[in-house]
Amino acid sequence: MKKVMFLGGAMMQLPAIKYAKKQGYYTILCDYLADNPGQYYANEYYCVSTTDKEAVLAIAIEKEIDGVFAYVSDPAAPTAAYVANQLNLPSNPYESVVILTKKDLFRKFLQDNGFNCPKADSFKTLKEAREKIKEFHFPIIVKPVDTSASRGISLVKSIEEIEQAFLNAISQSKEKKVIIEEYIEMSHDYQIGGDVFVLDGKLAFCGFLNCHRNKQLNPLIPIGKSYPVMIEDEKAELIRQELQRIIDLLDIKMGAMNIEAVFGKDHKPYFIEIGPRNGGNMISNLLELITGIDFVQASVECAIGNHSIRMDFEPKEEYYSSYTLHSAKQGILTDITFSKAIEENIISKYIYKDQGTAIDIFTAGNKALGFVFLKFDSLEEQLYKMDHMNQYITVNVL
Q1: Which CATH architecture does the domain made up of 3-91 adopt?
Q2: DSSP secondary structure of 102-134
Q3: Which residues contact 247 (CB under 8 A, 6 or more apart)?
Q4: Using one digit for the tens of pLDDT, what is the confidence trace for 40-86?
Q5: What global pTM score does this model have?
Q6: Could you tell me the end-to-end alpha-carbon distance of the chain, in angstroms, rounded to an integer?
Q7: Distance (Å) of CA 230 to CA 196, 227, 235, 330
């Protein structure tokens, strides 16, 4: 029986554990949160931080695991690579995974290897940032170097806003380090996101999606994805080529990678982030709806060395989206209502919060209340409803 170690047992990480259990694999879970839901599905559970490399390695050695996997988790991805490298298990190089999960290291990698990259620098103190900030052109992005789910990120338009943005970012950083970079104004309507999949060092699949945002609440936090992606074929091909070059340089051999990219006003491609893991917000589920490919299955199987995975599909003229249920208010959730005009588009709903529970303002991806998957009859209907979803879905809060 194959033994698979999972790093993280949060709600969004359950699909990977459930798949492994269904396949008859012996599942071992590490998560420092004692109330994580994954422990009720795994065969064994250890209350250990997924960022504690040596503690996780000790458990992996004791249990003689066949693979280790950090589903939808940037912080745990380096630990998974470290353990796998130490035990000669399927994985990517630890040093490369660290580069992809640390925003300052990723920017330096891009600069050193001739990729398009905004002006960027990292700082540990507000004083350092203030001294260098005069060299930047506003607006700028301020964010922690080592977080995911848009935690601690701010768009800063003037020098007067830098202090609050810096303090917000550094409070979210485990390393207590902040990166500041010039904002890239896009030449297209929607940021490009989604997941790609690597097999034997080559791009086997590119699932490019449009990223939708709530511009009234926070223009930096994604609130949905849609397909098909609205960029020209030649631009999509250029992103593929640049991605393959990154894969080659970092010696990435396998697995899913979550990407965020834009084309600037100079019409050049810029990678905002590349995460060495499946995307959050149920991107794997959305891509399965679109393609019929089970990306949870593919990712778990890769972690145990099975690369005989089907990645081909025939694109169809269909319009799919996901939408993140969220609130602009803090309080007690009374209910979530869906209008008849949107119910006809909804394929499925996943609601994480019960009525009567306390909820927060949607300031980061981990504040999501759940997700809905939708299908539309036309591109016009899709884009209008996605950009005006608050007319169709209401989160009621006391």
Answers
A1: 3-Layer(aba) Sandwich (3.40)
A2: -HHHHHHHHHHTT-----EEEESSHHHHHHHHT
A3: 198, 201, 202, 203
A4: 999 999 999 999 999 999 999 999 999 999 999 999 999 999 999 99
A5: 0.94
A6: 50
A7: 17, 8, 10, 34
